[in-house]
Design a protein that fits this description.
about 260 residues; alpha/beta; five-stranded mixed β-sheet; seven-stranded mixed β-sheet; single chain; TIM Barrel
Length: about 260
Amino acid sequence: MRFLVDTHVHIYPFYRVAAALDSLVDNMPASTADVRIGCLTERQDCFVFDRLAERGIADADAAYDVQRQSPTLIRLVRRRDGAGLFLVAGQQIVTAENIEVLALNTASRVADGQSAPATVDAVLAAGGLPVAAWGFGKWVGGRGDVVRDLLARFRPDQFALGDTTMRPHGWATPFIMRAARRRGFHVLAGSDPLPFDGEERRPGSYHSVVESAGATPADLVNGLLTLPPESLHSGGSRGSPVSVAQRLLAHRRAAH
């Protein structure tokens, strides 16, 4: 069985939520035996998982049947064609060093502004899977040392690195990623949509593909960091240098 897992999904409150869900489905083309999973990584001001679970988003409610299966897992079925999708609760945290740590598979909230090691400890204490997400300039110099320190402090079954569409294809794989893989750490792929209109089409465009026989979606997510390396690879694609530059410019304009 194949699981297609986007591990860095933002659905901002101003998005057309049904369109973002459609992108998760359509950007991860699946056979009838495949399972699509989107791991939400919500900012402190975003609560889309809770609103979906409570049937509180009009356009999504009109387009999808929603069933909450656990405190951290929702199953959605698109009404027009029966396509299925699972959403996992989670958060994006900004550390004191301005590094993004994703907390996958937890409904708890961890405060921004703590040190990176304290943030990872807090995510683990909340039952989540901590992932340090790649970002422009955030893994170089002193902050690169912080990421290397995290890789020294935590085991591969406790911590992972994240790759995103914001790292243009054609760029060399960062040394930190290569070294981490050699030591058995996973690098998880995610789409990382940005907070401006039009990014609703991004979810699912870059994701991890996991081969795992007999696992349920909940089991798969719970055990994501303990999978054998050969069972996991990336699917979809990262952005081109031009598209990444355009997205960064649009993001900067939207922020001002």
